[in-house]
Amino acid sequence: xxxxxxxxxxxxxxxxxxxxxxxxxxxxxxxxxxxxxxxxxxxxxxxxxxxxxxxxxxxxxxxxxxxxxxxxxxxxxxxxxxxxxxxxxxxxxxxxxxxxxxxxxxxxxxxxxxxxxxxxxxxxxxxxxxxxxxxxxxxxxxxxxx
Length: 146
Known about the structure:
Oligomer: single chain
Order of helices and strands: EHEHHEHHEHE
Strand order of the largest sheet: 3-2-1-4-5
Helix content: 55-70%
């Protein structure tokens, strides 16, 4: 994919936000000619981040971050079509690879993120490219791995 493909919208996966919460900085590495996209946040990512927040400072930061995206209309919530497609992909990948239920439940969140990103015409920026590439076997969406 060329950098021209990344000029519109992006949803950052949880794996990109974790260093931000831990160290206060996001370090995505883009090609030199990369045009910074308009960032959106998935409600699935919000849930995953809150699940991993164990101190009041992290929770306050997440409150501020999620409210900021919501305030400007860029908090993306999976709709019924995203959920239907996610269920189908889970069934297909479970059948093809024989994954256990723990992996499939974790994969569900990544599929929801991918479905939501595709619906709004965004790409997924992730440090967890392996799982998202597995999802691409069953659904076409744009991904940028770190």
